[in-house]
Amino acid sequence: MFNKQNIPAPQGNGLFARLQSGLTRTRATLASLFTGQPIWDDNLLEKIENGLLSADVGIEVTQQILMRLQHHPKNTRDKQDPRSILQQEMLQILTSVSQPLAIHLDSKPFSILVVGVNGAGKTTTIGKLAHYFLSYPYSVMLAAGDTFRAAAVEQLQIWGERNAVPVIAQAHGADSAAVIFDAMQAAKARNTDILIADTAGRLHTKTNLMDELKKIKRIMTRQDPTAPHEVLLVLDASTGQNALQQALQFHAAVGVTGIVLTKLDGTAKGGIILAIAQKLKLPIRFIGVGEAVEDLRPFNAQEFVSALLTDATV
Length: 314
Known about the structure:
Blueprint: E1 4-6, H1 13-22, H2 24-30, H3 42-54, H4 59-70, H5 74-79, H6 82-94, E2 102-104, E3 110-115, H7 122-134, E4 140-143, H8 152-163, E5 167-168, H9 176-189, E6 194-197, H10 207-223, E7 230-236, H11 241-254, E8 258-262, H12 272-280, E9 284-288, E10 296-298, H13 301-309
Parallel strand pairs: 3-6, 3-7, 4-5, 4-6, 7-8, 8-9
Antiparallel strand pairs: 1-2, 9-10
Helix pairs in contact: 1-13, 3-4, 6-13, 7-8, 9-10, 11-12
């Protein structure tokens, strides 16, 4: 019987190259700071500041990094490549949130409640997560808790068919909490390892919709006092600083326990991950760097920063 398993980060040069490719647009902003033979001076610090702001790291974290760079011991700066020193500062922020998702199966199913705004990629993320967990292998069930968006149930059912996993669903407009309650009962009856529950996308500023999420969470807790075991917030990296505001609101409403940052391949704003890490201190579980199922990968701080600051030719 499983007790606790940490989901590890993928390894291998091919996977690193895929990550590096997925971060092309943000990497173009940051890695280009260190072309030629950069030396520590005010000009380089200004370039770093502009690069970090362009990558949507945000003013607060950018100023923190610059201050630490300026106070870096001069004898160390003179001996080290500026790129490696910036890498160290980024790792200091990201390492603490680089925490793999721990799957506990003392009380099945391990339930994951997936939340986020419209368009962040929740349903697609759920399909990719199912594919990922099946590879370990865990048994997986999906709950179609988004009963409001047109074709949301059908979209999740397609992912269910692709992964050959059951999907618990009701009619369009059904009560989302009731769907997820039924799914928890079904998963328990079938001794399923992991239940992943979709929810309707909602603006983080709409109080009534956030209250509905609280209701879903209460219903899950009635079924299992330890559920949900993970409240996973899906954020679209391309929304930049708005993603940070979403995270703050969702965390205040339902107690987010992990973050998935999607669409990093389509934006130059990948630096938002630093702002999220610094402000929230919440685990970043997965990142999305492409459309393929393999492009949703566990977040690894060392791997991420290396891919972000290394030229593609290196």
